[in-house]
Automatic annotation (TrEMBL):
<dbReference type="Pfam" id="PF01053">
    <property type="entry name" value="Cys_Met_Meta_PP"/>
</dbReference>
<keyword id="KW-0456">Lyase</keyword>
<comment type="similarity">
    <text>Belongs to the trans-sulfuration enzymes family.</text>
</comment>
<keyword id="KW-0663">Pyridoxal phosphate</keyword>
<dbReference type="GO" id="GO:0019346">
    <property type="term" value="P:transsulfuration"/>
</dbReference>
<feature type="modified residue" description="N6-(pyridoxal phosphate)lysine">
    <location>
        <position position="238"/>
    </location>
</feature>
<dbReference type="GO" id="GO:0030170">
    <property type="term" value="F:pyridoxal phosphate binding"/>
</dbReference>
<feature type="region of interest" description="Disordered">
    <location>
        <begin position="429"/>
        <end position="456"/>
    </location>
</feature>
<dbReference type="InterPro" id="IPR006238">
    <property type="entry name" value="Cys_b_lyase_euk"/>
</dbReference>
<dbReference type="GO" id="GO:0071266">
    <property type="term" value="P:'de novo' L-methionine biosynthetic process"/>
</dbReference>
<feature type="compositionally biased region" description="Basic and acidic residues">
    <location>
        <begin position="445"/>
        <end position="456"/>
    </location>
</feature>
<dbReference type="InterPro" id="IPR015424">
    <property type="entry name" value="PyrdxlP-dep_Trfase"/>
</dbReference>
<dbReference type="InterPro" id="IPR000277">
    <property type="entry name" value="Cys/Met-Metab_PyrdxlP-dep_enz"/>
</dbReference>
<dbReference type="GO" id="GO:0005737">
    <property type="term" value="C:cytoplasm"/>
</dbReference>
<comment type="subunit">
    <text>Forms homodimers. May form homotetramers from two homodimers.</text>
</comment>
<keyword id="KW-0028">Amino-acid biosynthesis</keyword>
<protein>
    <recommendedName>
        <fullName>Cystathionine beta-lyase, chloroplastic</fullName>
        <ecNumber>4.4.1.13</ecNumber>
    </recommendedName>
</protein>
């Protein structure tokens, strides 16, 4: 990988930029840096690639310099340098994009101001009348943007259960312009067969763009482009950065033409990632391997603890997960987000309110552990009736596990479960109250739970 390039004189006529003057649709392109990755694919194992960079800084700086400059000097004829303006391209952002391209199995990667910004760029490929096929469990913000496009831009959106391939195949057609997948989904941790669904979408319409939101696993654990997707994107606010100190989104592609179209939107709308945030993200990525390893080890312990004590836990590290085998065919780890039900919303509220180490917060992928109730927080923008239809019950608790000591995390959770009356305590053991009375919306067995709580 090469670092920011030195001015080399006019490369491409008077523009002097290593890029063609128009995109594949014939739109005029403003000056921009060269496509991100100078070589396709990875050369080392992922843990090495996350850390290893070949910078060619003129002073030998070990950390990529932050080019905090909005504009760049040019020759009198308007050419000369690779960069002219930071909205169009910035050396720190290019360094990040080239680094990401390696680890995302891409030939080109683009960095933008948030995960939703990345999805906005992707959905700008759509035209009125286009159809989008997507899941019935999705991050709330993704659902909100799709609903906006369906309401205002003439896009037809089909929400189907992506764990059930025939349901997806049934709605795919020559009008399907985009298949948008999450695996695992946020927050019900459903797994879909990315390869099979990508093939089916391309068979239905060879021009269909398959976009996979890889936020839950990060490129450390899953590479959708290797599974047949056209775009892998994620909220880099989560695992890639890892410290909740930056908002960012990344998009990765293997097809140069598609990369140009995405870049065109980014430059036109001005959502490229700032130099400071690009630097923060470059720094965060270096520790992704160690963070993710620790986070998923801790998450496995927490998942087993909850399941052993009778809770219905959704986590692909557990053999009880309905798509366990599929998940391990396409991913290299289970990630560090799980969700579980108590069968009673009031009890769930008391658990969330009772923990000390687990911070009540949206987001995930940070080094510290978080707890949330998706229906009240990350998925509140989905109306109640739709949530209920999709099996997103009000009592659902989502845990995003960090790098703390796993025993401390479990002790804290155990204390909150007992205090909340979520478990039936017997000498030497405690078990979750049965969810048998649960009416499917987290309202069941409330008297049982309340009674239990008052005894403690
Ligand atoms: C799965 C998923 N995709 C995309 C996003 C959007 O990312 P951002 O918050 O960085 O815009 C989020 C969370 O916000 C998410 O959970
Ligand atoms: N108020 C925000 C909520 C962000 S949720 C962040 C993250 N994706 C998560 O799942 O926790 C909004 O309405 O977008």
């Amino acid at each position: 990988m090469s670092g920011p390039q030195k001015p080399t004189g006019p490369i491409n006529g008077h523009l002097g930029k290593a890029v063609q003057a128009s995109d594949l649709d014939g739109n005029d392109l403003p000056p921009s840096p060269a496509p991100s990755s100078p070589h396709p694919g990875r050369r080392y194992n992922i843990a090495t690639e996350l850390v290893y960079t070949e910078g060619h800084d003129q002073y030998g700086a070990s950390s990529t310099p932050i080019y905090q400059s909005a504009t760049f000097y040019q020759n009198p004829n308007g050419g000369g340098n690779e960069y002219d303006y930071t909205r169009s391209g910035n050396p720190t952002r290019t360094q990040l994009e080239r680094h990401l391209a390696k680890i995302m199995s891409a030939t080109r990667c683009l960095a933008v101001t948030s995960g939703m910004g990345a999805l906005d760029v992707i959905t700008r490929l759509l035209r009125p009348g286009d159809e989008v096929v997507t899941g019935d469990d999705l991050y709330g913000g993704t659902n909100r943007l799709l609903k906006f496009l369906a309401t205002n831009n003439g896009i037809v959106v089909h929400h189907v259960d992506t764990t059930h391939p025939p349901a997806v195949h049934r709605v795919l057609s020559s009008k399907t312009a985009m298949l948008l997948l999450e695996s695992p989904t946020n927050p019900l941790i459903k797994i879909c067969d990315i390869r099979d669904l990508s093939e089916a979408a391309h068979a239905a319409n060879p021009k269909c763009v398959v976009a996979v939101d890889n936020t839950m696993l990060s490129p450390m654990l899953q590479n959708p482009l290797d599974l047949g997707a056209d775009i892998s994107y994620e909220s880099a606010t989560k695992y890639l950065s890892g410290h909740h100190d930056v908002m960012a989104g990344v998009l990765a592609v293997q097809d140069a033409g598609l990369g140009e179209k995405l870049y065109f939107s980014i430059n036109s709308t001005g959502c490229g990632l700032s130099p400071q945030d690009s630097w923060l993200l470059l720094r965060g990525i270096k520790t992704l391997g160690v963070r993710m390893n620790q986070q998923q080890q801790n998450c496995q312990r927490v998942a087993e603890f909850l399941e052993t004590h009778g809770f219905k836990v959704r986590y692909p590290g557990l053999k009880s997960h309905p798509q366990y085998d599929l998940h391990w065919r396409q991913a290299r780890g289970a990630g560090a987000v799980l969700s579980f039900s108590t069968g009673n919303t009031a009890v769930s509220e008391r658990i969330v309110g009772g923990v000390k180490i687990w911070a009540i917060s949206v987001s995930f992928g940070c080094v510290n552990s978080l707890i949330s109730m998706p229906c009240r927080m990350s998925h509140a923008s989905i109306d109640e009736a739709t949530r209920k239809e999709r099996g997103l019950t009000e009592d659902l608790i989502r845990l995003c596990v960090g790098i703390e000591d796993a025993d401390d995390l479990i002790d804290d959770l155990q204390r909150a479960l007992v205090q909340a009356g979520a478990v039936n305590v017997t000498p030497g053991d405690f078990q979750a109250f049965s969810n048998d009375n649960d009416n499917g919306n987290g309202e069941g067995s409330s008297r049982e739970h309340t009674a239990r709580q008052t005894q403690i």
